[in-house]
């Protein structure tokens, strides 16, 4: 994808001391630098003032909720939210002249950072077969080209991907178009993200979403934050953690890395917080080995169960267990059979620390457990999440104030996209509603998720790929394998805001359709429009851009999809696409009729703060087979590592939004100037004979097939021996397509077996 890297390109690595606290004035300063550097300061400030405010737009950064009814002066301010806006509101433009100057080959030479920094795409662009450059096309011509292609295919040969930034309105129309066209091939970024959550929680709680509200987080006596780096990825969550601590709550964090944002926080909006030099967040840090969370929680539960047996009724919530759960007997039988020492040894956490955790948990009635990608991207992730639920269930910490499970979502509307029907599986309920409301027969069989889409393209079974946002080639596992599939496609189409690697790794024909961003005004036939999004806690809110569009040719995602649907389906549709595109209230009417919980959508979404979707588990109603929350008997992880192998996780740096690279620094980890690094314990470095900064190659071997990522630099880091960490997407080439989470088919981005060897130049 990029030419072979040479050591000279890696000369800028600097490793500094890690800060002990997140946010604070430095964060404000850093984000203002981003704003100044990359966008019109005036515009970005205007945007910042409106972010997450009533009447403003939903921050495109993450899915963390805003406080109900309470807003601080500049909204819920956040460094990485500011970067996301600066990225979108940039003054730089990528117009037809830019594409004329940069051939696709030249684009391929640019790093992800350089590509993204080029600016906002202003015109629809077409890459004809064998052409060297993208050239401008009219919207109508673009739609005609795509429609023509789609009509030559069996609908199941086409793939329609969604990234989680698409609004409810766009996402609903997209799945409607795709299903009227005739396929359920609707993979989304969720497949690589919280799919394991959906599976696990649907099975054991009857709803594949979190159960808590923001107030529950504030109100908890004990917060357990597992496999998540909120200081970087959900900075506004730090305010909630601090609020909880201010009210007397305590916090345990479970992570292979001592992430700065988990340790301490200075609230940039509170002069008192700045004066007091911040709040210590974690009361207890359990440095678990990668993917040994089951071992750790099993050990904890074993001790809790022993205490409960010694003094019945003092630890577990017997009433809750009796009335609302099933499987308790099997679960405790398994605990009886569990070898505590074995679990402790596997977890990597010293037994005294585990006992400390047990003391804290046993004394708490109100417990919230939050987690993110550290739990969802392993082969046994569905089990890992069920194990977390076991812990909450025995304590009765479910469906009452201050308690529950909080899978922290990534993209700002990834949860909403799924709620309104973007899924490769079409539920019988939605099939029926679509059929009734729109009077057509949606396809019945499941479509391809992300991994199966990659396989289908690779095997030539799928020939068309469209991405509603996102950057498929950089986001998916097994980059080389995936690229071959994309390149074989007859056509690839991307609805994008900025150039990215997926425009470079293209099909025989390729189109880029530039769209408005969240921050921009969207005026349609009936006047200014707003869209809506669902946050991590099931609150649906409106989002309306405030900035002038970054170019006159840009269209909203809704308008693009309606244009495309009308061109493709022509007479063969029961939907008035033009009416939908002209007035988004009509889309919301349809959603209200088809999706449970959206009754009176148009009215409720206009209320300040939006509305909550129904959530059974929040009220102890569990839509499982027997109406009860389920205890699960799970298996601990088994990684058969060779003597020279490590378990590698791929994580985000502080300067990126998934595949969009904002900068080269990972400030909270003290790593500057370089992203091709591998974090390794000093013990392992000594054993392997690596000095700090040593150039190495990484390889992973599965079923005899070796994948290689060349030229990384070793950074000594406080990570458990046997574990290493690299950045996503640089290390995605090593993630094998052949290994995914059992049940959810999620790539195993957090537990890849790798070897680390001294760098050898290419022959
Ligand atoms: N600024 C910014 N914000 C973002 C994003 C971004 O890229 N940039 N991405 C968005 C998206 S789509 C998502 S999904 C979220 C991601 O949010 P996170 O899940 O916080 O993101 P990761 O960097 O993948 O971090 C995973 C964390 O899990 C830990 N971890 C890894 N393996 C294990 C394990 O086996 N056990 C435990 N206990 N911990 C483990 C890692 O050390 C790391 O702290 O953030 C969203 N918000
Ligand atoms: N190794 C490894 N791989 C991973 C992960 C990991 O932790 N490790 N994490 C996984 C996770 S959690 C996720 S969610 C996926 C993310 O996968 P994706 O969602 O596919 O990737 P993003 O980088 O978020 O997408 C960025 C692109 O979206 C476009 N974009 C930005 N804003 C808009 C907009 O408003 N509208 C439209 N139409 N386009 C827009 C821009 O062109 C930008 O280039 O990656 C997954 N891949
Ligand atoms: Mo994600």
How would you describe this protein?
- It is a single chain.
- The chain has 763 residues and is of the alpha/beta class.
- The protein folds into three domains: 2-16 and 640-758, Barwin-like endoglucanases; 31-193 and 413-607, Rossmann fold (3-Layer(aba) Sandwich); 195-407, Dimethylsulfoxide Reductase, domain 2 (3-Layer(aba) Sandwich), CATH 3.40.228.10.
- The protein is 37% helix and 17% strand.
- The protein has 32 helices and 33 strands.
- The chain has a six-stranded mixed β-sheet with strand order 6-5-18-17-16-7, sandwiched between helices.
- Helix 27 (501-504) links the parallel strand 17 and strand 18 (509-514).
- Helix 8 (168-181) runs parallel beside helix 28 and helix 15 (293-310) crosses helix 19 (351-362).
- The longest helix has 18 residues, at 293-310.
- It is globular.
- The relative contact order is 0.16.
- One ligand MGD binds at residues 163-165, 189, 192-193, 373, 410-411, 468-472, 475, 495-498, 500, 515, 517-518, 557, 650, 658-660, 728, 732, 735, 749.
Compact description:
The chain is α/β, with parallel strands linked by helices and 763 residues long. The protein has 32 helices and 33 strands.
């Amino acid at each position: 994808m990029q030419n072979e890297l040479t050591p000279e390109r890696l000369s800028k690595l600097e490793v500094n001391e890690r800060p002990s606290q997140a946010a604070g004035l430095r964060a404000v300063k850093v984000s203002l630098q981003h704003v100044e550097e990359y966008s019109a300061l005036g515009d970005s400030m205007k945007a910042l003032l409106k972010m997450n405010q009533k009447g403003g737009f939903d921050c495109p950064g993450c899915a963390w909720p805003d406080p109900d009814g309470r807003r601080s002066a500049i909204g819920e301010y956040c460094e990485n939210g500011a970067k996301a806006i600066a990225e979108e509101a940039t003054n730089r433009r990528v117009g037809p002249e830019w594409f004329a100057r940069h051939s696709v080959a030249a684009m391929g030479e640019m790093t992800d950072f350089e590509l993204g920094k080029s600016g906002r795409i202003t015109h629809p662009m077409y890459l004809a077969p064998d052409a060297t450059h993208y050239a401008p096309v009219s919207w109508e011509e673009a739609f005609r080209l795509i429609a023509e292609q789609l009509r030559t295919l069996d609908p199941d040969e086409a793939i329609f991907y969604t990234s989680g930034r698409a609004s409810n309105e766009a996402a609903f129309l997209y799945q409607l178009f795709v299903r009227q066209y005739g396929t359920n091939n609707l993979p989304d970024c969720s497949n690589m993200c919280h799919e394991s959550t959906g599976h696990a929680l649907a099975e054991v709680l009857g709803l594949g979403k979190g159960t808590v509200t923001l107030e529950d987080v504030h109100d908890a006596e004990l917060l357990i934050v597992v496999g998540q780096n909120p200081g970087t990825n959900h900075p506004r969550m730090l305010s909630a953690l601090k609020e909880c601590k201010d009210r007397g709550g305590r916090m345990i964090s479970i992570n292979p890395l001592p992430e700065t944002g988990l340790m301490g926080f200075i609230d940039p909006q509170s002069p008192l917080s700045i004066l007091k030099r911040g709040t210590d967040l974690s009361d207890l840090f359990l440095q678990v080995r990668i993917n040994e969370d089951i071992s750790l929680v099993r050990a904890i539960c074993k001790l809790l169960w022993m205490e409960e047996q010694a003094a019945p009724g003092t630890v577990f919530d017997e009433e809750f267990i009796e009335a609302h759960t099933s499987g308790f007997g099997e679960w405790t039988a398994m605990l009886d059979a569990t070898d505590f020492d074995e679990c402790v040894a596997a977890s990597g956490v010293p037994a005294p620390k585990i006992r400390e955790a047990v003391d804290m948990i046993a004394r708490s009635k109100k417990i919230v457990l939050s987690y993110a990608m550290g739990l969802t991207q392993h082969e046994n992730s569905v089990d890992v999440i069920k194990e977390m639920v076991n812990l909450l269930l025995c304590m009765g910490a479910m469906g009452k104030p201050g308690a529950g499970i909080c899978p922290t979502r990534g993209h700002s509307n990834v949860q909403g996209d799924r709620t309104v029907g973007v899924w490769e599986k079409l539920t019988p309920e939605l099939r029926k509603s679509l059929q009734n409301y729109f009077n057509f027969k949606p396809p019945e069989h499941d479509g391809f998720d992300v991994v199966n889409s990659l396989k289908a393209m690779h095997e030539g079974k799928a020939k068309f790929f469209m991405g509603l946002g996102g950057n498929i080639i950089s986001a998916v596992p097994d980059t080389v394998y995936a690229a071959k599939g994309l390149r074989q496609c007859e056509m690839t189409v991307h609805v994008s805001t900025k150039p990215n690697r997926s425009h470079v790794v293209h099909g025989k024909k390729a189109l880029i359709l530039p769209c408005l961003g969240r921050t921009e005004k969207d005026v349609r036939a009936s006047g200014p429009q707003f869209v809506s999004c669902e946050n991590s806690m099931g609150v649906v809110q409106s989002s309306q851009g405030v900035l002038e569009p970054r170019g006159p040719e840009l269209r909203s995602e809704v308008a693009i999809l309606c244009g495309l649907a009308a061109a493709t389906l022509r007479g063969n549709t029961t939907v008035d696409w033009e009416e939908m595109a002209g007035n988004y209230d009509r889309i919301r009417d349809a959603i209200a009729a088809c999706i449970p919980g959206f009754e009176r959508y148009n009215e409720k979404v206009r209320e300040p703060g939006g509305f909550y979707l129904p959530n059974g588990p929040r009220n102890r109603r569990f839509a499982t087979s027997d109406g009860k929350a389920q205890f699960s008997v799970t298996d601990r992880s088994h990684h058969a590592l060779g003597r020279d192998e490590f378990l590698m996780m791929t994580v985000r740096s502080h300067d990126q939004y998934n595949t969009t690279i904002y900068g080269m620094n990972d400030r909270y980890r003290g790593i500057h100037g370089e992203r091709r690094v591998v974090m390794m314990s000093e013990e392992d470095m000594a054993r392997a004979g690596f000095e700090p900064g040593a150039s190495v190659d990484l390889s992973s071997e599965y079923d005899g097939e070796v994948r290689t990522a060349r030229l990384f630099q070793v950074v000594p880091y406080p990570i458990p021996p046997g574990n290493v960490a690299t950045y996503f997407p640089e290390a995605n080439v090593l993630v094998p397509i052949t290994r995914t989470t059992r049940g959810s088919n999620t790539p195993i981005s957090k537990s890849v077996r790798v070897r680390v060897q001294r760098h050898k130049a290419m022959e």
